[in-house]
Amino acid sequence: MISMYLDFVRIRFLMMLAYRVNYYSGIVIYAINIGAYYFLWKAIFGEAETLQGFTVIQMSTYVAVSWMARAFYFNNLDREISNEIVDGSVAIQIIRPYSYLFVKMMQGFGEGLFRLLLFMVPGMIVVSFIFPIELPKDPMQWIVFFVMIWFSFLINSQLNILTGLGAFFFENNQGLMTMKRIMVDLLSGVVVPIAFFPGWAISVLNWLPFQAITYLPGSVFTGRIEGADVWNALLVQVAWTVVLIIPIMLVWRAARRRLFVQGG
Amino acid sequence: MSRFAFMVSLYRDYFANYMKTKLSYRADFLVEVLSDLMFNGLNLVFIFIVFMHTPSLGNWSEAEVVFVYGYFMIASGLFSTFFSAWNFSERYIVKGEMDRVLTRPAHSLSQVMLENMDPPSIVGAIVGLVIMITSWSTLGLPFHWYDPLVLIVMVLGSCFIYMGIYTAMSAISFYSDAPTGIGPLIYNIQNYGRYPVEIYNKTIKFLLTWLLPFAFVGVYPASFFLGRLDEWWMPWLTPVVGIVVLSLGLGFWNYGVKRYRGAGS
């Protein structure tokens, strides 16, 4: 049973490997993005030593690591699911003896694993040569960070699945997907760390799942969250992963009742 | 002149056709406009948040940076209204639609543009204009009678730059059919022209000014209206650079069309 799902990871990994040329330019794109934000933040800091508790070095490390973590957790599951619902191929997948959503998750993981090994690791090496960043010295920090981006992947994929399933209910799911993408980019802390938001926004964002995707692992990596707080951050991620299962189950149940495939 | 009239009539017909197909899916139109505005909103929120923590960005005030962003929205909105052939390689080269385009009398590039026009983007340009006017009055900038005329010339120049660069990029697929991933790369670099170029290091500044002149779709032309004329001729280079880049892009396209052999099969 498990080995079947692992095969989905393997197949997607190999599929991505076939198109790896795209990923070399991807590394350049991420390096350019990190570079642009690096200079922007340097200008924002100006003469200031620290802003919201970030030093310049911490900030550039945060920018670099949050973009690289994005490379791992990012996937297009929302678009894939949405397309399969629109073209009707979801019907075939549902009658197969596996859990459709779990298979999607595994495919996303295969993609993420590919990006981790061929994109994130070489990208991080390239970036650490170009920009002044400070990598954590404590091996424990590295381990916790990798556990945390695994949960980032889970939470982000769950949000993607939820958005993708929207295609069952809306004729045009594009708007929902765009909205989700912008919310994840803005509210997860890739573009601006949560600490920079105004106070009222921070208290709202603490109750949303987005910060668990980028901000928490990024903060652990830069050493802004230390000691017992690290476990709290991890706990928040676990809690969101569990909580998000509920809406997915509800939507999935409602969706299967609605499913109506034309032709075939 | 008759060729120009021919193009205008073609544009009118394609536009009528576009409206007919779109009006049957009215919600799509709205969704496209909203997604577009949300992307711009994201960037504006970034600017607002940043200025909560700093009074200036490399000597540029918040209102000035927002002003530049408004200008950027006008130029990029107007450009995408007429040109959004982002999937050119896949649709025209891989699927072979280019062969159909080439059998028709109008110029191949203008046909591709017409088939891919995206009128919802114009809303972004209008919002950009509103943002620009608002920050104009926040900054208390003087208004001269010639400013609207200059704005038209500058925006045209900026659009020419976009058109030249993206035409050349699309034309790459005439020379090589392998996906290069260069499209997203250029698209990312495009976004850096809307911040003051002084904040970048020399290499990126040089890149944005002379190699991929995206700084002319943002900071340089906008600084004319802001009266920030450290080098007074810099904004005026916008139309010049626009014409040069557009000619290069068109030349690259035309040469590519000559080389084009079809996808086979």
Layout of helices and strands, plus pairs?
The complex is a heterodimer of chains A (264) and B (265).
Chain A: H1 2-18, H2 21-45, E1 50-51, E2 54-55, H3 56-73, H4 77-87, H5 90-95, H6 100-130, H7 139-165, H8 174-187, H9 199-205, H10 215-221, H11 228-243, H12 245-258
Antiparallel strand pairs in A: 1-2
Helix pairs in contact in A: 1-6, 2-3, 2-6, 3-6, 3-10, 4-7, 6-7, 7-8, 7-10, 7-11, 7-12
Chain B: H1 2-23, H2 26-51, H3 62-82, H4 88-94, H5 97-102, H6 108-115, H7 122-139, H8 147-175, H9 182-190, H10 202-211, H11 219-226, H12 237-259
Helix pairs in contact in B: 2-3, 3-7, 3-8, 3-11, 8-12
Describe the structure.
The complex is a heterodimer of chains A (264) and B (265). In chain A, 73% of the residues lie in helices and 2% in strands. The mean pLDDT of chain A is 87. Chain A has one domain. In chain A, strand 1 and strand 2 (54-55) form a beta hairpin. Chain A contains twelve helices and two strands; from the N terminus they run H-H-E-E-H-H-H-H-H-H-H-H-H-H. Chain B has 265 residues and is an all-alpha fold. Helices cover 71% and strands 0% of the residues of chain B. Chain B is built from twelve helices and no strands. The chains are: A mainly alpha (264), B mainly alpha (265). The interface between A and B is large, with 36 and 38 residues.
